[in-house]
Amino acid sequence: MTATETIGCVKAATKILGDKWTPQLLRFFVNEESVRFCQIQDLVEGINPRTLSARLDALEAEGIIEKVTAPEKSRCEYRLTKKGKELTPILRDMQNWSEQYA
Amino acid sequence: MTATETIGCVKAATKILGDKWTPQLLRFFVNEESVRFCQIQDLVEGINPRTLSARLDALEAEGIIEKVTAPEKSRCEYRLTKKGKELTPILRDMQNWSEQYA
DNA sequence: CAGTATCCGTATCGATACTG
DNA sequence: CAGTATCGATACGGATACTG
Question: Who has greater pLDDT, B78 or B33?
């Protein structure tokens, strides 16, 4: 935690977390274990379906979430992959910092 | 680190780290203790002075770095504030994740 | 419910040239 | 050295309406 330790390449995480909405979205995944499209629309104020869809697609393409479709129920869920779950420490740190300097 | 712990608001950190280049820039601050403009230009491939200047201004406005000018030397340095140093855990986690999933 | 299609404004960023 | 000025491309995201 000292400021002098080496910090190296940070790009992969930046590519994901730099997108607008994505950190907010991910915090729901961390809490909920599985999430539905309309659920996010209700919980995340201001996001529109076009953007939400784009974020979900990007996260899926990166292997951070996976889509679980149950066709007979005409609904689907998204849930974190292992790779996605390992973003949790970053999110937690971002939360801590944000609360401290709100 | 369990996926079920509560993650709350993450916006303040997102506002900073969501800007293109900023995480890359910050990693130099974490290592170097004090940094000069031209130093960053040399080290960060592809950034142009306009953008670098904008990032530095934003970081200064947020109280994450401070500018130390030595007029008689016609050069200045930037260094992390306490608030800025406390971004280190986030950057470190981002590095770990990025390396693991490069 | 879970998206897609379309359209469009703007914010962001790059390139380049120039300055105190 | 440490920036600013200008200009222009485009990527990004918002609003809205529509669909399997």
Answer: B78
Structural domain of B27: 3-101
B77 in helix, strand or coil?
Answer: strand
Q: Scan residues 10-49 of chain A and list those with Cβ within 7 Å of strand C.
A: 36-39, 49
Nearest Cα residue to A36 out of A8, A65, A15: A65
The upper half-sphere exposure of residue A13, i.e. CA atoms within 13 Å in the direction of its Cβ, equals 28
- pLDDT value of position A13: 97
> Could you tell me which chain A residue has the CA closest to the CA of B44?
A9
Looking at the structure of chain A, the number of domains it has is 1
What CATH code is carried by the domain that includes residue A21?
1.10.10.10
Greatest CA separation for chain A: 55
Give helix A22-32 / helix A88-100 axis angle, nearest 10°: 110
Q: Bridge-partner residues for B76, per DSSP?
A: B69
Task: Using a cut of 0.85, tell me whether the model's pTM lies above it.
Answer: yes
Burial class (CB in 10 A: 0-12, 13-18, 19+), A52: middle
Where would I find the H helices in chain B? 11-17, 22-32, 37-43, 49-61, 82-85, 88-100
Amino acid identity of residue B40, one-letter, is I
**Residue A36 touches chain B, beta carbons under 8 Å:** no
